[in-house]
Amino acid sequence: MMPTRDRPSPTLEGEAAQTPPLRANNEFDDFYAANVRALTSQLLAYTGNKAEAEDLVAEAFCRALARWKKVREYQNPTAWVRRVAWNLATSQLRRRGVVQRFLNRQRETHETAPDGDRVDLMRALAGITPNHRKAVILRYMAGLTVTEIAEQEGVAEATVRSWLFRGKAALAERLSVQDEKEQR
Protein backbone atom coordinates (compact mmCIF):
# COMPACT_ATOMS: atom_id res chain seq x y z
CA MET A 1 0.00 0.00 0.00
CA MET A 2 1.46 3.34 -1.06
CA PRO A 3 1.22 6.20 1.44
CA THR A 4 -0.70 9.20 0.23
CA ARG A 5 -0.59 12.79 1.20
CA ASP A 6 -3.82 12.50 3.20
CA ARG A 7 -2.89 9.31 4.97
CA PRO A 8 0.44 9.02 6.82
CA SER A 9 2.60 5.97 6.20
CA PRO A 10 2.12 3.15 8.71
CA THR A 11 4.62 3.02 11.57
CA LEU A 12 6.04 0.07 13.42
CA GLU A 13 4.17 -1.03 16.53
CA GLY A 14 5.04 1.12 19.51
CA GLU A 15 6.87 3.64 17.36
CA ALA A 16 5.48 7.13 17.60
CA ALA A 17 5.39 9.14 14.42
CA GLN A 18 7.38 12.18 15.50
CA THR A 19 9.32 14.78 13.67
CA PRO A 20 12.70 15.71 15.08
CA PRO A 21 12.60 18.90 17.14
CA LEU A 22 13.97 22.00 15.47
CA ARG A 23 17.07 23.54 16.99
CA ALA A 24 16.32 26.44 19.26
CA ASN A 25 19.08 28.54 17.72
CA ASN A 26 21.30 28.65 14.71
CA GLU A 27 24.58 28.34 16.60
CA PHE A 28 25.90 25.48 14.49
CA ASP A 29 24.70 27.11 11.26
CA ASP A 30 26.61 30.27 12.14
CA PHE A 31 29.69 28.24 13.08
CA TYR A 32 29.50 26.37 9.76
CA ALA A 33 29.03 29.53 7.69
CA ALA A 34 31.95 31.25 9.41
CA ASN A 35 34.42 28.41 8.83
CA VAL A 36 33.51 26.30 5.80
CA ARG A 37 35.25 28.39 3.12
CA ALA A 38 38.56 28.72 4.94
CA LEU A 39 38.69 25.03 5.85
CA THR A 40 37.79 24.01 2.30
CA SER A 41 40.59 26.21 0.92
CA GLN A 42 43.08 24.65 3.31
CA LEU A 43 42.04 21.11 2.41
CA LEU A 44 42.08 22.00 -1.29
CA ALA A 45 45.71 23.04 -0.95
CA TYR A 46 46.48 19.81 0.89
CA THR A 47 44.63 17.39 -1.40
CA GLY A 48 44.77 19.24 -4.71
CA ASN A 49 41.16 18.32 -5.51
CA LYS A 50 38.28 20.74 -4.88
CA ALA A 51 35.49 18.14 -4.80
CA GLU A 52 37.49 15.94 -2.45
CA ALA A 53 38.26 18.90 -0.18
CA GLU A 54 34.58 19.85 -0.07
CA ASP A 55 33.60 16.26 0.78
CA LEU A 56 36.19 16.02 3.55
CA VAL A 57 35.13 19.31 5.11
CA ALA A 58 31.46 18.31 4.85
CA GLU A 59 32.20 15.02 6.59
CA ALA A 60 34.11 16.83 9.35
CA PHE A 61 31.21 19.24 9.90
CA CYS A 62 28.73 16.32 9.94
CA ARG A 63 30.78 14.71 12.69
CA ALA A 64 30.85 18.01 14.56
CA LEU A 65 27.08 18.37 14.24
CA ALA A 66 26.55 14.86 15.61
CA ARG A 67 28.61 15.84 18.68
CA TRP A 68 27.73 19.55 18.74
CA LYS A 69 26.75 19.68 22.44
CA LYS A 70 30.26 18.54 23.33
CA VAL A 71 32.21 20.20 20.50
CA ARG A 72 30.74 23.67 21.09
CA GLU A 73 32.16 23.57 24.63
CA TYR A 74 35.73 23.14 23.35
CA GLN A 75 38.03 26.11 23.59
CA ASN A 76 38.40 26.13 19.79
CA PRO A 77 35.71 24.10 17.93
CA THR A 78 37.19 25.17 14.60
CA ALA A 79 40.46 23.46 15.48
CA TRP A 80 38.52 20.27 16.25
CA VAL A 81 36.76 20.34 12.87
CA ARG A 82 40.03 21.16 11.09
CA ARG A 83 41.78 18.27 12.82
CA VAL A 84 39.01 15.84 11.84
CA ALA A 85 39.13 17.06 8.22
CA TRP A 86 42.94 16.75 8.10
CA ASN A 87 42.79 13.26 9.58
CA LEU A 88 40.21 12.24 6.99
CA ALA A 89 42.37 13.72 4.23
CA THR A 90 45.49 11.97 5.47
CA SER A 91 43.67 8.64 5.59
CA GLN A 92 42.31 9.19 2.11
CA LEU A 93 45.74 10.15 0.75
CA ARG A 94 47.24 7.00 2.27
CA ARG A 95 44.57 4.84 0.65
CA ARG A 96 45.06 6.64 -2.64
CA GLY A 97 48.81 6.02 -2.39
CA VAL A 98 48.24 2.29 -2.03
CA VAL A 99 45.91 2.27 -5.02
CA GLN A 100 48.29 4.43 -7.07
CA ARG A 101 51.25 2.16 -6.37
CA PHE A 102 49.17 -0.80 -7.47
CA LEU A 103 48.09 0.96 -10.66
CA ASN A 104 51.63 2.06 -11.43
CA ARG A 105 52.70 -1.56 -11.38
CA GLN A 106 49.89 -2.48 -13.78
CA ARG A 107 50.47 -0.01 -16.59
CA GLU A 108 52.37 3.11 -17.46
CA THR A 109 50.41 6.33 -17.90
CA HIS A 110 51.42 9.81 -19.00
CA GLU A 111 49.34 12.83 -18.09
CA THR A 112 49.92 16.45 -18.85
CA ALA A 113 48.73 19.10 -16.44
CA PRO A 114 47.55 22.58 -17.37
CA ASP A 115 49.92 25.51 -16.86
CA GLY A 116 49.53 28.37 -14.45
CA ASP A 117 50.82 29.70 -11.16
CA ARG A 118 48.16 27.92 -9.13
CA VAL A 119 48.99 24.60 -10.74
CA ASP A 120 52.68 25.21 -10.11
CA LEU A 121 52.01 25.89 -6.43
CA MET A 122 49.74 22.86 -6.11
CA ARG A 123 52.35 20.68 -7.80
CA ALA A 124 55.10 22.08 -5.58
CA LEU A 125 53.00 21.49 -2.44
CA ALA A 126 52.28 17.94 -3.56
CA GLY A 127 56.00 17.31 -3.95
CA ILE A 128 57.01 18.05 -0.36
CA THR A 129 56.58 15.80 2.66
CA PRO A 130 53.13 15.72 4.30
CA ASN A 131 54.33 17.28 7.57
CA HIS A 132 56.04 20.15 5.75
CA ARG A 133 53.01 20.65 3.49
CA LYS A 134 50.60 20.64 6.42
CA ALA A 135 52.72 23.11 8.41
CA VAL A 136 53.05 25.53 5.48
CA ILE A 137 49.31 25.41 4.72
CA LEU A 138 48.26 25.83 8.34
CA ARG A 139 50.68 28.71 8.87
CA TYR A 140 50.21 30.68 5.67
CA MET A 141 46.70 29.78 4.53
CA ALA A 142 44.94 29.13 7.83
CA GLY A 143 46.90 31.84 9.62
CA LEU A 144 47.65 29.67 12.64
CA THR A 145 50.59 30.51 14.86
CA VAL A 146 53.46 28.12 15.45
CA THR A 147 52.04 27.48 18.92
CA GLU A 148 48.58 26.62 17.55
CA ILE A 149 50.05 24.27 14.94
CA ALA A 150 52.17 22.58 17.60
CA GLU A 151 49.11 22.06 19.79
CA GLN A 152 47.05 20.71 16.91
CA GLU A 153 49.74 18.31 15.75
CA GLY A 154 50.88 17.32 19.22
CA VAL A 155 54.53 18.24 18.63
CA ALA A 156 57.01 20.76 20.03
CA GLU A 157 57.08 24.30 18.64
CA ALA A 158 60.67 23.73 17.53
CA THR A 159 59.45 20.85 15.38
CA VAL A 160 56.86 23.09 13.72
CA ARG A 161 59.49 25.78 13.07
CA SER A 162 61.70 23.12 11.51
CA TRP A 163 58.84 21.87 9.32
CA LEU A 164 58.11 25.44 8.21
CA PHE A 165 61.74 26.20 7.44
CA ARG A 166 62.22 22.99 5.47
CA GLY A 167 58.83 23.25 3.79
CA LYS A 168 59.47 26.81 2.59
CA ALA A 169 62.94 25.84 1.38
CA ALA A 170 61.56 22.85 -0.53
CA LEU A 171 58.80 25.00 -2.06
CA ALA A 172 61.29 27.71 -3.05
CA GLU A 173 63.50 25.12 -4.69
CA ARG A 174 60.63 23.51 -6.57
CA LEU A 175 59.18 26.83 -7.70
CA SER A 176 62.54 28.31 -8.71
CA VAL A 177 63.26 25.24 -10.85
CA GLN A 178 59.94 25.87 -12.61
CA ASP A 179 60.92 29.54 -13.20
CA GLU A 180 64.26 28.55 -14.71
CA LYS A 181 62.53 26.16 -17.12
CA GLU A 182 60.11 28.90 -18.18
CA GLN A 183 62.95 31.34 -18.94
CA ARG A 184 64.59 28.91 -21.39
Automatic annotation (TrEMBL):
Classification via SUPFAM superfamilies: Sigma2 domain of RNA polymerase sigma factors, Sigma3 and sigma4 domains of RNA polymerase sigma factors
Q: Which domain of life is it from?
A: Bacteria
Signal peptide start-end: none
Which CDD domains does its entry note? Sigma70_r4
Keyword terms: DNA-binding, Sigma factor, Transcription, Transcription regulation
The annotated region (Disordered) lies at: 1-23
Q: Which Gene3D superfamilies match?
A: 1.10.1740.10, Winged helix-like DNA-binding domain superfamily/Winged helix DNA-binding domain (1.10.10.10)
Limits of the RNA polymerase sigma-70 region domain: 31-97
Q: Which residues form the RNA polymerase sigma factor 70 region 4 type domain?
A: 119-171
What InterPro entries does the record tag this protein with? RNA_pol_sigma-70-like (IPR039425), RNA_pol_sigma-70_dom (IPR014284), RNA_pol_sigma70_r2 (IPR007627), RNA_pol_sigma70_r4_t2 (IPR013249), RNA_pol_sigma_r2 (IPR013325), RNA_pol_sigma_r3/r4-like (IPR013324), WH-like_DNA-bd_sf (IPR036388)
Similarity section:
Belongs to the sigma-70 factor family. ECF subfamily.
Q: What is this protein called?
A: RNA polymerase sigma factor
